[in-house]
Amino acid sequence: MTSVFERGPVARPALSRCISVAPAEFDREFWGRGPLLSRAETLPESFDDLITEAAVDELVSERGLRTPFIRMAHEGSVLSPAAYTAPGGFGAEVGDQVSSEKVLAEFAAGATIVLQGLHRTWPPLIDFTRRLVDDLGHPIQVNAYITPASSRGFDPHYDVHDVFVLQIAGEKHWRIHAPVHPDPLRDQPWGDHRDAVAEAATHEPVIDAVFRPGDALYLPRGWIHSAEALGGTSVHLTIGVAAYTRADVVQALIASLSDVAALRSSLPAGLDFSDPEALRPVVDETLAAMQEAFGALSGQTSGGAGALPSTDAAVTVSQRLASRFASATRPEPVSPLATVDFIAALDAGSRVRWRGSLHASVELSTDGDSVRIRTSTKTVSLPAEAADAVRRLHDGGVVALADLPGLDLASAIVVARRLLREGILVPA
Q: How many CB atoms lie under 10 A from the CB of residue 176?
């Protein structure tokens, strides 16, 4: 029988930095429902540790960024990459690297700088994003928008993902309007409703406010917004949350139908796809097979030739969404050199912890001979006597090797060495 060791409840400190209400109230009243503007004085701390104007200059001038990690826009139009990139010179001839001179020229002329994917390129945001993913349970990306005085980067539009806006420097005038297409999916961009968006933007805004450093906004997908810098350079972070939806649950269920033999059979030869009447019997048979398969998942039928293998709908969806989530997010980075040096010096006092944001299940084998750690990329098996130690590590916190339950010191060092090399543990 499989036993899965689950983590206990986790605090939500990253989310709490971005909202002026308790996380439970945010979940209940605002998540996916409506905007929340939180002024700096209502939040626990500023965002100066995440990025600054000096950090933007460093990223543009010294980090060798390439497209698509940078783009620029002016009065609603995205500039050609040639306008702000160039080869990097001897030893770095790649042609799409950011050119600080070109960026300066375009920025001075009123163009907005967009630094994309900062959750992969700027260390403070790498860590913050990982923690916010843990708090929200959905994949996240981070962009920075740097707008010169009195400039507008983009026309009124909506995003197909939820966003948190964190004002870093300067002032920006934001106007927020209610959706014309609520809860858009990723293949339903605002351009599909361009005229309706433009018309809605002429009405009275739901939020019409000047954002100052330390202010934060949560905006569900679909809400129309535009912003204009005031009086000086404005820097803000846009944290995009690719919220999974019930449509994703449907897709996971549909994907499970590939296990149904009746739905894998070929359509008749010579079938005229342009003739609805010719297709009608095929569609009817397909719907019947789907209903039988889903009935088996929900426990409403006993199953038949068209049923899915015996399982549970929630288990099916969980497995597919968990795999997708693990592929879309990244655990805490590891340090190869430091880890190898740490492994070489393991002793009773060595302290280790579970790698941050590493999504893994821990289960005993059916025969009870081993404990298995399953991640999105690998399965690591250890002798069953290591089960209590693995469970202790998976529960979280820092543990000295001498304190690992169920193992003598020599065995604890062997287990720790293996899990460090596999990237499951990290030095504490």
A: 20
Instruction: Classify residue 31 by its DSSP letter.
Output: T
Residue ranges of the chain that CATH labels 3.90.930.40: 336-427
The CATH code that applies to domain 336-427 is 3.90.930.40
CA dist., res. 242 & res. 245, Å (int) = 9
Q: Where are the beta strands (DSSP E) in 261-420?
A: 351-354, 361-364, 370-374, 379-383, 399-400
Residue pair 128/14 in contact (Cβ under 8 Å)? The answer is: yes
> pLDDT tens digit string along 374-417?
998 899 999 999 999 999 999 999 999 999 999 999 999 999 99
CB 402 within 8 A of CB 349: yes
AA identity, residue 345: A
CA nearest neighbour of 117 among 135, 103, 129: 129
Give the SS3 label for residue 226: strand
**Class of 13-241 in CATH:** mainly beta
DSSP notation for 108-128: HTTPEEEE--HHHH-HHHHHH
In the block, residue with structure tokens 């590493």: 358
Cα angle 51, 223, 45 (rounded to 5 degrees) comes to 30
Q: Is the pTM of this model over 0.85?
A: yes
Six-digit token string for 184: 């858009």
